[in-house]
Write a structure and sequence with these properties.
The protein is 41% helix and 0% strand. It has one helix spanning 25-46. The two termini are 36 Å apart.
């Protein structure tokens, strides 16, 4: 038997994610730059080259 920890959350519908192409061009560009920065910083942290704490 599985215990339901948050049963009230099951009744709420998830907000659908908009298709990438429907986002404004400047929003897509900003998100792409932020994701690239996140991945670059994460890769640097994995190699011990980052000032960020884990």
């Amino acid at each position: 038997m599985q215990l339901e920890l948050f049963p009230e959350t099951l009744s709420t519908a998830a907000t659908p994610t908009p298709p990438w192409q429907s986002l404004p061009a400047d929003t897509r560009q900003a998100l792409t730059q932020l994701m690239a920065r996140l991945m670059t910083e994460h890769a640097g942290a994995a190699g011990g080259e980052s000032d960020h704490e884990a």
